[in-house]
């Protein structure tokens, strides 16, 4: 009965009203499959092997309850944020950020930060040029290229005449020519990436205007990473070009936050000269002094040092930085890629060992930060499923979503304040939106997350019946469950509702019975599955059986739930991701912002 299951889950003593056979059911082995009540437990999710009770024929019944009294973590409203790589200057996509379709897609993920940074950050030079034709070097000799360049100029002139948000409707032929240009540049960019040798990039004043217009129109807050590799003979940072950019941005009253450099622990491999953590700390103090001299940015936020994976030498770099500038930055940042995109396979995205690699990194970063600046916010920036630009039909497919959704759940449960996804639109295959401006599976996953998930993280208690493992076999948690208060911005649900999100990596369906405070509540299901014959490789998705696609360039589709009757068991299909809003729980933790 539901009453018996509730007492089993809560651990309370059995009341006199329990049936005589209850003890016989309790003894054989309700095992704790996963408990997320303490953040420190998130990395240890192995199931305890137990004997199978008589009459249970290999089926797993999972009992789920949530602590609704108080949140275990509260993360930023901008928790899921976005990144654009400076390579969009090289391949020309920056000129198309005013596209109505792109702005509509970005607005769907607001509020969020938009970080403009990447491998080419430290090769970026600002040039205060406004004339569009001169800034692009003039039309090329090819007839079609000349038309393309002239179209860009005409588009810029038309945008200049608009008040407020500057939105463009680019002709199809113009986009087709741009895709051809980007395809050619993609090969150049990949060659640079694999050789680790990058050419200089020029960011004009007009290009900065376009970047800021996109962020502002989309409801995103721009974070701009300045070039840290401009060095004086004594290896201190040369801030002259940065100062020019800061003055221009201030003259336009652009609301921007700032960073300095990208993966500074790798500078030796880029230029043959290293910058240690304490020197970068001094550079950040210098940047903070510059910001304070400019009224517009005297209180601007500053983030860093954006180190790479925290191996031993990188941890030493971070310690040197924190000793000098730990109090100067508003959040400490690092970045992570799970696998090498050149060798990735679809089965890689299903490995629980891979999903758990992030837990150890979080602990390492937190240990250093809490040593020098206890309580300082920590961000994971530039996160992607694969490195090296990703792989077609893998890092841009439905399968990559398992890593992405687990990353969001794991980081939130560990108290990481913001995660910045690389990239919104980019060359390669790690992005959320492709070069036809069509949203990919991870975009729809992110959109559901934004619509349904609030900043308050709740503790989950899960218990179930598990088959006895074969000798020597380790059972890893292939069913990942996370819980938050439902987003306050979603007016379809009253405050006090709870959203669960579930990753089922099993090749069989799993059944979950809601217990305790969640028992007998109406549930809205949002089941995301691949659409079409490509299965896990698919770039199309369906929500509750209906394909997801934009209605038009200015309209995202309605995300319709499937209502489940009160008390119904949740059936989680194999190899899927899903969200469940438990309505009218009246959770104390979720009643107020």
TrEMBL record:
GO terms (BP aspect): extracellular matrix organization
InterPro entries: GH, Glyco_hydro_79
SUPFAM superfamilies: (Trans)glycosidases
Any GO MF annotation of the entry: hydrolase activity, acting on glycosyl bonds
Coiled-coil parts of chain: none
Gene Ontology, cellular component aspect: extracellular matrix; extracellular space; membrane
Family indicated by similarity: Belongs to the glycosyl hydrolase 79 family.
Protein name as catalogued: HPSE2 protein
Gene source species: Calyptomena viridis (Lesser green broadbill)
GN (gene name): Hpse2
């Amino acid at each position: 009965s539901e009453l018996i299951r509730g007492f089993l889950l809560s651990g309370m003593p059995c009341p006199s009203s329990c049936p005589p056979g209850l003890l016989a059911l309790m003894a054989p082995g309700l095992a704790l499959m996963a408990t997320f009540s303490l953040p420190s437990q998130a990395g240890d999710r192995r199931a305890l092997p137990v004997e199978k009770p008589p009459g249970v024929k290999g089926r797993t019944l999972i009992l789920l309850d949530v602590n609704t009294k108080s949140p275990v973590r509260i993360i930023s409203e901008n928790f899921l944020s976005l990144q654009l790589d400076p390579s969009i200057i090289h391949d020309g996509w920056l000129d198309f950020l005013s596209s109505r379709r792109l702005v509509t897609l970005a607005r769907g993920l607001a509020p969020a930060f938009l970080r403009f940074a990447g491998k080419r950050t430290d090769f970026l030079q600002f040039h205060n040029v406004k004339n569009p034709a001169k800034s692009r070097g003039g039309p090329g000799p090819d007839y079609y290229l000349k038309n393309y360049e002239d179209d860009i100029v005409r588009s810029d002139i038309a945008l200049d005449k608009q008040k407020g948000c500057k939105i463009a409707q680019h002709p199809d032929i113009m986009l087709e020519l741009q895709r051809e240009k980007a395809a050619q540049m993609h090969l150049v960019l990949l060659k640079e990436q694999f050789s680790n040798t990058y050419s200089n990039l020029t960011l004009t004043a007009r290009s900065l205007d376009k970047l800021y217009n996109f962020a502002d129109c989309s409801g995103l807050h721009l974070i701009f990473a300045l070039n840290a590799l401009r060095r004086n003979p004594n290896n201190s940072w040369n801030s002259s070009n940065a100062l020019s950019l800061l003055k221009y941005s201030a003259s336009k009253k652009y609301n921007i936050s700032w960073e300095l450099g990208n993966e500074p622990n790798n500078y030796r491999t880029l230029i043959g000269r290293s910058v240690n953590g304490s020197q970068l700390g001094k550079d950040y103090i210098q940047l903070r002094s510059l910001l304070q001299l400019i009224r517009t940015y005297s209180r601007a936020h500053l983030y860093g040092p954006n180190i790479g994976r925290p191996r031993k030498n990188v941890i030493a770099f971070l310690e040197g930085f924190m000793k000098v500038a730990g109090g100067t930055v508003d959040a400490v940042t690092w970045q992570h890629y799970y696998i090498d995109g050149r060798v990735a396979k679809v089965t890689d995205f299903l490995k629980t060992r891979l999903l758990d690699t992030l837990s150890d990194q979080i602990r390492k970063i937190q240990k250093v930060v809490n040593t020098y600046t206890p309580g300082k916010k920590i961000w994971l920036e530039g996160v992607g499923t694969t490195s090296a630009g990703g792989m077609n039909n893998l890092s841009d497919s439905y399968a990559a979503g398992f890593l992405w959704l687990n990353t969001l759940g794991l980081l939130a449960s560990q108290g990481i304040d913001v995660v910045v996804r690389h990239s919104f639109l980019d060359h390669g295959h790690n992005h959320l939106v492709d070069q036809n401006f069509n949203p990919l599976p991870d975009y729809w996953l992110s959109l559901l997350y934004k619509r349904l998930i609030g900043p308050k993280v709740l503790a989950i208690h899960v218990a179930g019946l598990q088959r006895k493992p074969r000798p020597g076999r380790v059972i890893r948690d292939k069913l990942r469950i996370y819980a938050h208060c439902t987003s306050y911005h979603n007016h379809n649900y009253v405050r006090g509702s709870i959203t669960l999100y579930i990753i089922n990596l099993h090749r069989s369906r799993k059944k979950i019975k809601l217990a305790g405070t969640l028992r007998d509540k109406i549930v809205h299901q949002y089941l995301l599955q691949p659409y079409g014959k490509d299965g896990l490789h698919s770039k199309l998705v369906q929500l509750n059986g209906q394909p997801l696609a934009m209605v038009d360039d200015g309209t995202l589709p309605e995300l319709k739930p499937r209502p489940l009757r009160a008390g119904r068991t949740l059936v989680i299909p194999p190899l899927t991701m899903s969200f469940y809003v438990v309505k009218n729980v009246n959770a104390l933790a979720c009643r107020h912002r």
